[in-house]
Automatic annotation (TrEMBL):
Belongs to the PC-esterase family. TBL subfamily. It is found in: Membrane. This is Protein trichome birefringence-like 34. It comes from Vigna unguiculata (Cowpea). InterPro entries: TBL, TBL_C, TBL_N. One of its GO terms (cellular component) is Golgi apparatus. Keywords: Membrane, Signal-anchor, Transmembrane, Transmembrane helix.
Amino acid sequence: MAKAHEIVVGSTWGIRNIFQSLVAILATTLVVTAIYLTQEGEQWSQDKTKLHSLSKCDFFSGKWVFDNESYPLYKEQQCTFMSDQLACEKFGRKDLSYQNWKWKPHQCDLPRFNATTLLERLRNKRMVFVGDSLNRGQWVSMVCLVESSIPPILKSMRTIANGSLNIFKAQEYNATIEFYWAPLLVESNSDDPVNHRVAERTVRVHGIEKHAKYWTDADILVFNTFLWWRRKAMNVLWGSFGDPNGVMKKVGMVRVYEMALRTWSDWLEVHINRNKTNLFFVSMSPTHQKAHEWGGAEGENCYNERDKISEEGYWGNGSYPSMMRVVENVIEDLNGRGLKVELLNITQLSEYRKEGHPSIYRKQWDPLTEEQLSNPKTYADCIHWCLPGVPDVWNELLYAYILNP
């Protein structure tokens, strides 16, 4: 009996011990879970606070900070679809510090660009850049930013619409990043993507459907237009090209610019699906063609420039506040009509970057004359931008808006 009693007592102690162990395990699990949930909650709270702070931040007021550890965000020679117009290193530029500057807003940090995150946002969607060669440069930048994360067999590039529409496709995501050539947004005699140099520029300020049909169903639209309007006046055509009954009149700047943007805004108001499409307008990209404006020698330009402009608030004569006000007014009017358009105000931050242009380091489409070769500044490109470079930051700003709509 004693032996049996011992067995019973032993069994009871064993059950009690197992029960206590289970209680201890459960308690530990509850504590660990509580800690985990607290940490997750804190992380969620931090992320929410960060997104909230980004929404309150003025992205366009800040300074350039040299960073040769995190920048550039990609290598020029590793971008499959790099443009020879923007590949400055390929065409002989040796000083590459223009690739190592990041934009730091005064009130926050821009989110680090993540190609996979963007592609997930673009899954089953179209992002279309519409505008001139500067917008095309931003498009090339965006393609370079994302394409290195995509295997070669899962990405492609094609051109349609007589060369006007270039389509980069990430097949795994069923996403496209496209560029449509429309340098004045409305129809003009400069609409051919190759042969667009004309002595007298003519626009149909009320004609936009020719272009718009190619980007009607886009999910993200990024527009720009400025460079091609830089003249005192422009021919305006009422009627169609080739119509003998058409009426032509020369209209001064800034009025003709406003007429075109009103046509653009009216089209958006009627045709854009407000529940689907996000709209952006990129402000004027500055040029650096007169060095005396930033304290350089008279008659010089961006050629041989190696440093950025350090004077805060610097504004060159190549950027026109009157045209900027037109854009702001048109967008404000659209917003008042219930159609949200984000203005990516890249003008001021780009003003500081006089050394960021291709200068002579790009493919020359026409043979250079002996006179040009003897004086390189005469053929220096002080309008477009080297890649990697300034347009990558424009896309970081765009990315921040897409991430936090």
